[in-house]
Amino acid sequence: MTTHSQAHALPQPPTPARLGILLSGRGSNFLAIAQAIADGRIPAASIAIVLANVEDAPGLDAARRLGLPTACFVSRGRTRAQHDADVIACLRQHQVDLVCLAGYMRLLSPAFIAAFPQRILNIHPSLLPAFPGLDAQTQAFDYGCTLAGCTVHFVDEHLDHGVIILQRAVPVLPTDDAHTLAQRILEQEHQAYPEAIARVLSGHYQITGRRYLPIP
Question: Which CATH class is domain 122-216?
């Protein structure tokens, strides 16, 4: 079997690159991304739109306080295709180059994936492929793992499945419970997600099979 290497650099967008943030809750990873942009750790990037599927998501209020554009398309009671069509149209209207899921509690439709190929990122609080889905930190703790962590990956049609960009390991301490473990994983998420976004926006990588390979 032949394995092909393909470069998946983003098309060169107008500077700065425009990020679309999707969230469902408090948006702590969104705020970490916004701070990283302000600090220059994600060079030449801006947040074009913060979008939620829950009307009272605290992350929307946080975005408004930062003066960022926001939108909300309530997903409850609608089909995934209907909802995603509205979200896709909004992201396109705001000329988004890279979509970043930051606690967005919905599976994306194939049409959504096709609309932004290799341009959707997600962060998950486990060392994938271990413990996909909800409550990953509790899953790891209950399983008796001695090592947990987080993963930033490209999004494909499957749950927590796309090509891994980077991972951060977090040891499970004897004094941990599921809550303290989750808190320490979250601290690493706030560092890992901005780093992964900067890597992807640089375009200095290729994907071979399922492996993300940096290009010097």
Answer: alpha beta
